[in-house]
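[Amino acid chain]
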Amino acid sequence: MRNAGFWRRVAAMLYDGLLLFAVLMLIGTPFVAARGGEAVEPLTDPAFRLTLAATIYVFFVGFWTGAGRTLGMQSWGLQLETTDGGRPGLATNSLRFIAALISWAPCGLGFLWQLRDRDKLTWHDRISGTRIVHYPKPEKRKR
């Protein structure tokens, strides 16, 4: 077990991004239907904007709290832990979610920070007291 590398984390984020995009499309369907098939502008419809934000929050914080990983993280052998190896709870995961937004705000600098950090941690890892670790799959024994 070791802290996950940058590219493995990026791959998991891309996978999760595709899954989240599909979920958001489903969540948006009733809003589009209510407008007779017309596009919904998130900037002008506060209910739609709030629904999208809540969906994104529930997606990440729900997976982190329930399984300790998203589906993308699971695919890449990643697990979210506290710095002492425990499972983070709802409050810690909510803090991590908000801190991840801060990490994205300056053009993703908080994520890129991992490339310079001695422990391979991002800003939101440090702020929330969590880390993402890589658990390699056990090698199959040859018979």
User: Anything to note?
Assistant: The longest helix spans residues 6-34. The radius of gyration is 17 Å.
